[in-house]
Amino acid sequence: MELQEAIANRRSRKKFKRDMHIDDDALYQAIERATDAPNHKMREPWRVVHISKDRLGQMSKDIGQYAFKGDDDKKKDHYDNVTNLGGMLALIVQKDPRQKQNLENYMAFGAFAQNLMLLLHEAGIGTCWKSPQYIFMPEVRDTLGVKDSEDLVGFLYLTDMEDRVSHRKRRMKNLITEY
Ligand SMILES: Cc1cc2nc3c(=O)[nH]c(=O)nc-3n(C[C@H](O)[C@H](O)[C@H](O)COP(=O)(O)O)c2cc1C
């Protein structure tokens, strides 16, 4: 697949009403290949926790008790949505106490994440990066095994690519100015 084609056609998939399945071997291969992302001093400041299809329901119950405390409708909605997915990745960045290195780590993570989404697109696996407020909850972090030296920067929802998705057009306002 052409790089330009993958960049142009990778789109966030936000509907999870059907039961979806993905190829976990292709997923693991894409994760390894995505690590060719640039990262300063080769800190490789990324890791993921794979929640496979058969573990999605348990994970939803485990984090739902904190994330949606007292709101049974939201718990059910999350459970129904995520159990339809083909799997999920918890996205984890290595923090650094030094300001510059911390910024570099976060930006390297973004490069890794885009590599990963493009490679998954090429492998026929759809994605949506989700960053709900509850990624900051200590109980949710603990449930996923996120260490004090790390941040949970979201979840990558993994789907098939059967549904059509529209292209969200970019405004490209003030994109380039002349020096
Ligand atoms: C860091 C990051 C966090 C995001 N968080 C969410 C989210 O919480 N919920 C959601 O529906 N989409 C989320 N998205 C997806 C964006 O909404 C999506 O990329 C944007 O609408 C552009 O659409 P496209 O990815 O199809 O080009 C996130 C994307 C990024 C890069």
UniProtKB/TrEMBL annotation:
InterPro entries: NAD(P)H_nitroreductase, Nitroreductase, Nitroreductase-like, YdjA-like. Residues 7-157 form the Nitroreductase domain. Pfam families: Nitroreductase. GO terms for molecular function: oxidoreductase activity. Gene3D superfamilies: NADH Oxidase. Keywords: Flavoprotein, FMN, NAD, NADP, Oxidoreductase. Signal peptide: none annotated. Its cofactor is FMN. Transmembrane segments: none annotated. PANTHER family: NAD(P)H NITROREDUCTASE YDJA-RELATED (PTHR43821:SF1). Belongs to the nitroreductase family. This is Nitroreductase.
